[in-house]
Amino acid sequence: xxxxxxxxxxxxxxxxxxxxxxxxxxxxxxxxxxxxxxxxxxxxxxxxxxxxxxxxxxxxxxxxxxxxxxxxxxxxxxxxxxxxxxxxxxxxxxxxxxxxxxxxxxxxxxxxxxxxxxxxxxxxxxxxxxxxxxxxxxxxxxxxxxxxxxxxxxxxxxxxxxxxxxxxxxxxxxxxxxxxxxxxxxxxxxxxxxxxxxxxxxxxxxxxxxxxxxxxxxxxxxxxxxxxxxxxxxxxxxxxxxxxxxxxxxxxxxxxxxx
Length: 259
What we know:
By secondary structure, this protein is mostly helical. It is built from nine helices and three strands. It has a three-stranded antiparallel sheet with strand order 2-1-3. Strand 1 and strand 2 form a beta hairpin. Helix 1 runs antiparallel to helix 4 (about 90-105). The longest helix is centred in the N-terminal third of the chain and has 34 residues, at about 1-35.
C-alpha cells in the first residue's frame, strides 16, 4: 500500500513538472520575442525543447522527427505570429495563452478526434505563418514548405487509422497542398484583423483547412463503412464549400490586402 501511495505521489509530481515546463516554454518564447528583434533565438528555443526526439538511438531519429513535426510546425507558426503581432502585447499574451492550451490540452491527446484537431491546427497555423513571411521568397521554397505541411498533417491523421499505405497517401496529399501553395504564391489575398497588429488571415489558410477537413471526413467514412456514405459527408461538404465560396466570392473585395 505504501508503494502505491509513493507511486501516486511521483505521478502527481511528474505531471506538475510537465505542466510547469510547458508553461515555462511558452512564457520563455514570449520573453524572447519581446527582448530580441530576430526570430532566430525563438526558433532555436522551440527546437531545443524537442531534444528528447534525438535522445534515442539514431535509427529512431527519423521516426521521432516525423512524429513531432506537427508540434514543431505549430510552435514555429506561433513564433511567427508573435512577431507579426509586434506592438500589440495583449494579442501576444493571448496567443501565448492559446499556445499553452495547445501544449497542455490538445497536443498530448491521442483520441482520433484530437488527432484531427492537431493536424488541422498545424495546417491552418502553418499556412498562415508561411504566407505571412514568404512574400519575397522563391516560389520553390513556398511550394516545398506547403508540401511539408500537407504531408505532415496527412501522416498525423492517417497514423490514427489502421492504414497500410500511410506514406503513399501522405505524399499524395502533400502534393495536393503543394499545388494549392503554388497557386497561392501567385495569387494571395489576406484579411486584415482589427487589433491584431500585422497579423493577416490569408484566404489560402481557410481554403486549405476546409479542403483538408472534407477529405478527412470522406476518408473516415470510407474506412468505417467500406464506402463513402452521403450521410457522413454531406454536412462537412456543405460547410467546406460554403467557406470556400464565401471567401472567394463575397470577401474578395472586403478588407483584403494582397500579400
